[in-house]
Amino acid sequence: MLIQAYATKGDLAEVLKENEFQPSQLVLLEIFVQIIDAMVYLVNYGIVHGDLACRNALVFRFHNSNPQENLVKLTDFGLIRPSTLYLVVGSTASTANLLVLVRYAAPEILPIEGFSNYSKKSDVHSMGILMCEACSQGQLPYASIEDDNEVRRLKLNGDIFRRPENCDEKLWTIIVQCWHQHQRPEVRPTFKMLKQSLLELRLLSIVRYLLRIYFIYE
User: Fold this and answer.
1) Where is pLDDT greater, at 118 or 62?
2) Where is the Protein kinase domain (predicted)?
3) Is the pLDDT of residue 108 over 90?
């Protein structure tokens, strides 16, 4: 049983799609760092999330322009494999759902039945999809394609998204690194490396913002 505080704003996908929340890139960076902090914690306990998506980021506070007024928490981490954080007692049954969410899954998972190939590196791939989804104002990955089998084919061929409008080239570079080298998960960044890249970009964005304000009033 998982008990947590009630998120009055709903999930991130829902809030973005309703267009009530139209975050700046600086706000998105804050949200991504909060989600990655949660993933770093899970990785430390050997937990693979297995379902990283905007719908699994619960929103407690949001503000379009002030990063510090935003608070999201990660939920619904599938118990893909045992960890030191929890103990499975008296059961040999698998807790894994055999449904693979193709639009978010890493390419190395798609040809394989079950969850045997899920890992912290496949979660990094899904984090890239999550960031792209958020930058696209909650648009479903591969939204123009209805057939999941076609999505599977595209992903296995190494096809990726186009850069969303609310995503500059530096952020897009970080996102693309999450899908790096197609089916070679070992060369993707760790969540700690991903966080460091986002923090550096956040600092750069703040400096740019302050300089812009300075020249406006100068």
Assistant:
1) 62
2) 1-199
3) no
Instruction: For residues 218 and 216, give the distance between their C-alpha atoms in angstroms, rounded to a whole number.
Output: 6
Q: Which two tokens stand for residue 159?
A: 């096809």
Task: Work out the average pLDDT over 200-204.
Answer: 92
Assess contact for 96 and 78: CB atoms under 8 A: yes
3-class secondary structure, 209: helix
- Listing DSSP states for 13-61 in one string gives HHHHHTTS----HHHHHHHHHHHHHHHHHHHHTT------SGGGEEEEE
Q: What is the pLDDT of residue 4?
A: 73
Beta-ladder partners of 74 = 57
* pTM for the model: 0.85
Residue type at position 112: I
Q: Is position 101 within any domain? A: yes
Number of domains in the chain: 1
